[in-house]
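Students often ask why we bother encoding 3D structure as a string. The short answer is that it lets us treat folding as translation between two languages. Here is a chain of 179 residues written in the first language.
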Amino acid sequence: MYWGIALTGSSLSIFKGGDRLVHVPLDFRMAVDINAPAERVWAVMRDVESWPEWTPTMKKIRWLDKGSLAVGSSALIWQPKLLPAKWKVTELDDSRKSFTWETRGPGMRLHARHWVEGAGNTSRATLSIQFSGPLGPLFERLTRKLNDRYLALEAKGLRERSEGITASTSESGSSNGDR
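And here it is in the second language, the structure alphabet:
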């Protein structure tokens, strides 16, 4: 019996004999520092339906069930250069300001985890996606540049939207301070 390691592109597989024991997919990740309290950034991040207003990577988001972001809820998301996808929320922790949702395609699963950490009046938001499944590495390779670009645009949009909201505009409902 032999052990083997295969590194292909950006994924790692460990084999024992002819069987693959472990496959570690690439985790795309983008962190951005934001000059706004974590509560404000989390409010922007949590308002998923408004994402198309502040990031060009989202054309439209529509919840498929009542309410908003909650474990078990699903949304249909239209993005440029991608097919519409149904995303299901699998984790939500308001106290830690994080959520995870996933979508599936033939032979692959895509997890997206987003979270906010704060320190006083500043925050760090992290956006991440991870491919898994037998065809996950293939989808990861095919969409690598697009994923890097989209995460950067989303991080930039989140920062600008969060920094542009002031206490007076969020309380009055005005969008004059929004970008």
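Translate back mentally: DSSP finds four helices and ten strands in the chain. Keep this in mind for the problem set.
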